[in-house]
From TrEMBL:
Domain Glucose-6-phosphate dehydrogenase C-terminal: 192-485
Entry annotated with the keyword NADP: yes
Metabolic or biological pathway: Carbohydrate degradation; pentose phosphate pathway; D-ribulose 5-phosphate from D-glucose 6-phosphate (oxidative stage): step 1/3
Lineage: Bacteria, Bacillati, Bacillota, Bacilli, Bacillales
Protein name: Glucose-6-phosphate 1-dehydrogenase
Binding site for NADP(+): 10-17, 44, 87-88, 150
Family affiliation: Belongs to the glucose-6-phosphate dehydrogenase family.
Length: 488
């Protein structure tokens, strides 16, 4: 790999400590970083290089998936980290930074390839992009790339403005929008599993699939993020990005020998085929919830509106369940139920594919033990694929017995989402990043939900913390004759 300068805005922030430094370290150990790799960490407060390096080391010790940190490797890894004070609105700071980066690149005698990682609030994206452009930091003899974190806008309009401001300095193919769900190992496998296994590929449509359920539940509440979360809610925080990306990754039908562009093109097709809601009928397919007081893991917890810094009368959503329809050749008639919530019974992200029961009609065995076939992708906390089948009960030959085929991978051996994503960005592979058109189409799809919430056209259901959400979410499926699988 060619030499790379990694320029990190927000180097003293939480994300850098928890995710970015451990990811870089594990990439280094796995020999996935270039020989010549240097990091310029940027932040507002003063910090010497040795103190910065000590902070990076601390973050590895706390958050790296590799718990054993070997001193020799650590030294080699950490010596390329430098820290510079930079005020994002201060143009001079960018010029000084450019001089230092150029000196470093000249020393190495290589082409200049620069990756700018914005681990800062989105309100700074536009200013930073403009200053990168103006200062000359964006002029490289090799490539330049921009990595940004969510949230990408607050609604369709603000997302468009944000995109506009980035495009002053970066072309679409240079922008890597992180959606960390796309970095989860199981999510990265979905397309390959579907396209390389005839047993799946042959069944991947409305002839065999009855419905699909995508769940991402958490037990945590709003934590210390009241300011952000009370403006965002579950719909913006999880649904518009992670949940719709999961839907896209699962439902694309790709040719063999897929390229990045194919995957992105197919995702766009899915989003374009999604039946658009109108704000008047949002309430019949979307359930809005907010957690009340309850019990999590045996401990009492307060309701959302009693959380610190949340207004007592907040009607913000901490749960959403929605029924979606994809109106295309493959998926017409298959309901997709998607839900995500905070303060739920368990932490779990999973996809359940429920198959139809054609044998019922053609005289297959009738038995109360018989269940529909299920294909389950557990995405986190554990990674697991299981297939639920029906077999004969050896104890009672008249009876049917469920049988499970189960594949389980322990998370400890797997690279983390951020390792996958940063590694891909360093290699210029944008398959698992959100393309602007996907982001725009996702905002477009949720826009009527935002309007309906805003105008209070959808009831707000309060659910007890530590449960599976409001009962209205169960009714959403019950009216189609289904239920959420695996709710305990
Ligand atoms: C983030 C949301 O994007 O995803 C958080 O902002 C949420 O509110 C988190 O907790 C969930 O991620 P994961 O990987 O723990 O499922």
């Amino acid at each position: 790999m060619e030499a790379i300068t990694f320029v990190l805005f927000g180097a003293t922030g939480d994300l850098a400590k928890r995710k970015i430094y451990p990811a870089l370290y594990n990439l280094f150990i796995d020999q996935k970083l270039p020989e010549s790799f240097s990091v310029f960490g940027l932040g507002r407060r003063e910090l010497s290089d040795p103190d910065f390096q000590a902070n990076v080391e601390k973050s590895l010790r706390m958050f790296s998936r590799r718990k054993v940190i070997d001193q020799e490797n650590l030294q080699k890894f950490i010596e390329v980290f430098r820290y510079r004070v930079l005020d994002v609105g201060h143009k001079e700071d960018y010029k000084t930074l450019l001089q230092e980066i150029e000196q470093q690149e000249q020393k190495l005698g290589t082409k200049s390839n620069r990756m700018f990682y914005l681990s800062v609030g989105p309100q700074f994206f536009g200013t930073i992009a403009a200053n990168i452009q103006e200062s000359g930091l964006g002029k490289t003899s090799g490539w330049k790339r921009l990595v940004i974190e969510k949230p990408f806008g607050h609604d369709l309009q603000s997302a468009r403005e944000l995109n506009e401001s980035l495009s002053i300095a970066f072309k679409e193919e240079e922008i890597f929008r992180i959606d960390h769900y796309l970095g989860k190992p199981m999510v990265q496998k979905l397309e390959v599993l579907q396209n390389n296994n005839p047993v799946f590929k042959a069944l991947w449509d409305n002839r065999y699939i009855a419905n699909i359920q995508i769940t991402s539940n958490e037990t945590v509440g709003v934590e210390e993020r009241a300011g952000y979360y009370d403006q965002a809610g579950a719909v913006r925080d999880m649904f518009q990005n992670h949940m719709l990306q999961l839907l896209m990754m699962l439902t694309t039908h790709s040719p063999n020998n897929t390229t990045n562009d194919d995957v992105r093109e197919k995702k766009k097709i899915v989003m374009n085929s999604l039946e658009q809601l109108h704000k008047e009928d949002v309430k019949s397919s979307v359930i809005r919830g907010q957690y009340g007081a309850g019990v999590i893991d045996g401990n009492p917890v307060v309701g959302y509106t009693s959380e610190p810094n949340i207004p007592e009368d907040s009607s913000n959503d901490t749960f959403i369940a929605a029924k979606l329809k994809i109106d295309d050749y493959f998926w017409r008639g298959v309901p997709f139920y998607i839900r995500t919530g905070k303060r739920m019974k368990e932490k779990s992200t999973r996809i359940v594919i429920e198959f139809k029961e054609p044998l019922k009609k053609s005289g297959g065995t009738q038995d109360e033990n018989k269940k529909p076939n299920l294909l389950v992708f557990e995405i986190s906390p554990d990674e697991r694929i299981s297939l639920h089948l029906n077999t004969r009960d050896p104890q009672n030959k008249e009876k049917i017995k469920p049988m499970y085929i189960d594949f389980h991978e322990t998370q400890a051996n797997l690279p983390e989402a951020y390792e996958n994503l940063i590694g891909d960005a360093l290699n210029g592979d944008s398959t698992f990043f959100a393309h602007w058109e996907e982001v725009e189409l996702s905002w477009q799809w949720v826009e009527p939900i935002l309007e309906a919430y805003n105008e209070n056209l959808v009831p707000l259901h309060i659910y007890a913390a530590g449960t599976n959400g409001p009962s209205a979410s169960d009714e959403l499926l019950a009216q189609d004759g289904y239920h959420w699988w695996f709710d305990q």
